[in-house]
């Protein structure tokens, strides 16, 4: 009986020791996972600031693009402005909306830093980021087509390249288009990061 009691006591002590070893290991794995998600959340916040700057820069640059040629006639004045073309107007409105959305999304991004395992804010961000990505990409693509025609024209349609005359205007709109695609790239990375964070939840 004494041997049986000693064996059962040893088995119980071994189980207890194994449980004590598992507890620190689980805590370590949980902290490691939490740190990984917090790193993604911090990266998300920084990228949002970059996308915000690019989107607002694109909208502002396009909205300020205006040039009037120094020569004119009695009936005509040669001027180029973004509001002369619907695609450029759509571009300004769309990028301003994307910039406004990115400002509103910053508090939710901060919540994901404070609470890395929160699924709700991350799910909301990935849905709205996808919508912002669609809007900014479509606006950039529409403006790109007009900028291409302004630089190269279209011989088949007898559309002349206007950038030979309106050089400052074309430089402004070209810079705005480039800035919009920088914002698109940032938002695309944001969507991928959110998807990775949700997958590892």
Structure description:
With 201 residues, this protein is mainly α. The protein is 79% helix and 6% strand. It is built from four helices and two strands, in the order αββααα. The longest helix is centred in the first third of the chain and has 62 residues, at 2-63. The chain is elongated. 28% of the residues are buried. The model is unreliable at 20-30 (pLDDT under 50).
What percent of residues are in strands? 5-15%
The rough form would be described as: elongated
Task: Indicate the low-confidence ranges by residue numbers.
Answer: 20-30
**Rg calculated over all Cα atoms:** 28 Å
| Portion in helices | over 70%
Q: How far is the first residue's CA from the last residue's CA?
A: 51 Å
Tally of alpha and pi helices: 4
User: How would you classify the helix and strand content by structural class?
Assistant: mainly alpha
H and E order: HEEHHH
Strands in their spatial order, largest beta sheet: 1-2
Mean pLDDT across every amino acid position: 81
> How many strands, which pairing sense, and closed or not: the largest β-sheet?
2 strands, antiparallel
Tell me the number of strands. 2
Write the layout of secondary structure elements.
Layout: H1 2-63, E1 66-72, E2 77-81, H2 86-114, H3 119-152, H4 167-199
Task: Write a concise keyword list for the protein shown above.
201 residues, 2 strands, mainly alpha, 79% helix, 4 helices
In summary, what is this structure?
The two termini are 51 Å apart.
